[in-house]
Amino acid sequence: MSAAAASLAAPPLATGERGAAGGASALPLLTRVAWRNLGRRRLRTCMSVAGIGFAILLVSTFTALQTGVYGAWIDTATGILTGHAQVQHPDYQDDPRMANVVEDAAALAERVAELPDVVGATPRAEAFALVSAGERSFGALVLGVDAAREAEMFALPTQAAAGEYLPNPDSAYVGETLAANLGVAVGDGVLVLGSAAEGGLAALALNVDGIFATGQADLDRSLLQVPLAALQSAFGLEDAAHRVVVNTTSGERAPSVAAAIAPTLPAGARLLDWRTLMPEIEQGIRFDRVTADMIYWLLMLLVAMSVVNAFMMTVFERTPEFGMLLAVGMRPNAIVGLLLMEGLQVWALGAICGLALCVVVVVPLQIVGFALPDNEAMRAMNEQMMMPERLHPELGGKALLQAPLVMLVGTLFAALIPALRVRRMRPVEALRAEE
Amino acid sequence: MTEVGDVVACRALRRTFETDAVPVHALRGVDFDLAAGEWVSLAGPSGSGKSTLLHLVGGLDRPTGGDVAVDGVSLAALSNAALSDLRLRKIGFVFQAYNLVPVLSALENVEFILQLQGVAAAERRRRAKDALDALGLGDMAGRRPGELSGGQQQRVAIARAIVTEPVLLLADEPTANLDTGTTVELLDVLRDLNRSRGVTILTATHDPAVMSYTTRRVNLRDGGIATE
Q: Does the beta-carbon distance from A325 to B78 stay under 8 Å?
């Protein structure tokens, strides 16, 4: 019997001896062939690159803009009065009783102010009281503050429309609308009447030394600031306060800084960041982010589908070539790898173009900022949303990485779908595709 | 009866293509052997089964019945991956339409197959150059297929097919797209490979010129061997 005839019952060829037909050492070859293949249909490649680049440009630029707007929004909203975080009695947020206080608040504020990433901390006591001048009386929120620290940390002290900010131990800093309602001006006296911590009547006679105008209707109508010591004394709080207001290096970092501070607090105190203190801001950002993300995903999906189409055409056109490669011994997975490499290179070109244009557009705006249109509708919106006059986009890690990474996955997936057809190709049928 | 040293052995080889109308019996139980050093032409009219037989011998298609052995390896038992390995290491292919990778130069096209085998860079470069030199294409190594004539492209394809020193060279209508002069040049190259290097060649062809060069001619008709 001949060797060949005998071999009809011979064991199959071992596959382990294969070299680089699909292995790691074939990578430089795949990279080179993939790169050159991109030049075979230049218009199609350019369209895919442009689509990916455009999606990345748009999504990264608007993400940078969103990040900047959110940051400004948080800082502006918290910068008037609320601060980035507050130390409170555990029950005070839900049950703001006079008795729910943080003890030894001034010392606690000093200690917190020394912690990393904290730029300031100040105690505040507050009371809902009746404010009277002559025959007129209005309910108001009376804030007892450390005037020096407030001036360092918040915008309200700088928003005096008349007079000055709490120059004396018996000064009052009154909202513009409240002052008008009471009929008082700088130099006039007001009387504050409320319930003391122990349940008795608390009374405080003050001089209006300043009137502020924030543009925020609620604040201007119902807020009055007084020296902390005066309020503590009149309302029987001694050294206690209701809040120690904390500012961190930035509003966006506040939650993580607050989380680091929380374990250092004494028993009977808890720390809340601006997301809990001003949930409307958090909800507004979340809603805006979800809406924008839906548009971004839709855009990137459309681009990915156009890339799928381009690769479908590629696989269809090159079927005989793939048949030849299969015939000479290249494994289907290596051809799939070749197509994925082409997808990776198309993505890389698109990402470079998109990010480069994004940097060109965003970086100047990040430095100089841009103003919102000055019209009635925008002013009303700004007042409601507490937006600053100029916005500065922030080209951070999220803006630079999110869209390119999503498009990377999308492009590879788009290349993989048609590429998987190669795995089902039979060499002889693929070769016949050109006939 | 097969002989010691057969490179190919086909036994009761059948291939039926299922179509919407009726099954097409391309091969109806073919027994065929190819000895080492032979150059055999498969001849016959269109539809006689010569390309089907070539594809089955090359492991590009699976038979409906029977078996093929190449260099002592039964193809029926091989997985697709093992079949792919066998094609890479033991068989060289030359196609009618040249079928080179258009984005690679002549040298890279020849080198490519060695890289698939995992041959080291320096060695594969040397062997690819030698193969091109042997086929008179040394000065065209840097040209891409689109910059070569049909005959030159087919010679590059032959260089790619022989650079791995396969036990079997399969050529499917290798001269179909070539003019008479180029056909003769190419056949001289194949004869030289067959005679001086002992390359075993199986060719499917309509071309009488090719048949005149081969050492044996097998005529197929209606899916069976008519005459030898």
A: no
ipTM, interface predicted TM-score of the complex: 0.90
Cβ atoms A107, A307 nearer than 8 A: no
Task: Give the model's pLDDT for residue A237.
Answer: 92
A69 and A89, same domain (yes or no): no
Report residues of chain A scoring pLDDT below 50.
Answer: 1-24
A328: nearest Cα among B96, B124, B95, B102: B95
Instruction: Enumerate residues 25 to 84 of chain A having a beta carbon within 8 A of any beta carbon in chain B.
Output: 25-26, 29, 33, 36-37, 39-40
Pick among B96, B99, B104, B170 to test the A interface (most A CBs inside 10 A): B99
Tell me which residues of chain B have a pLDDT lower than 70: 1-5, 98
B116 → closest Cβ in A7, A330, A428: A330
Assign domain B6-97+166-227 to its CATH superfamily. P-loop containing nucleotide triphosphate hydrolases (3.40.50.300)
From the candidates A1, A2, A7, A13, which should be mutated to test the interface with B, based on the most B CB atoms within 10 A?
Answer: A13
DSSP three-state, residue B155: helix
Count of the separate structural domains present in chain A: 2
* Calpha distance A369→A372 (Å, rounded): 10
Query: Whole-angstrom Cα distance, residue A392 to residue A185?
Result: 38
The model's pTM is 0.77
Q: Per-domain residue ranges for chain B?
A: 6-97+166-227
Subunit contact A4:B9, Cβ cutoff 8 A: yes
Is A13's CB within 8 Å of B99's CB?
no
Q: Please indicate, yes or no, whether residues A46 and A98 belong to a single structural domain of this protein.
A: no
pLDDT value for B134:
83
Report whether B218 contacts B225 (CB < 8 A). yes
Q: Same domain, yes or no, for A340 and A233? A: no
What pLDDT shows up at residue A177?
96
pLDDT at A387: 67
- For residues A238 and A383, state if they share a domain: no
Question: Which domain, by its residues, includes A369?
Answer: 22-73+283-432
CA distance, residue A435 to nearest chain B CA (Å): 10
Longest dimension (CA), chain B: 54
| Together in a domain, A238 and A103 | yes
Same domain for A114 and A189?
Answer: yes
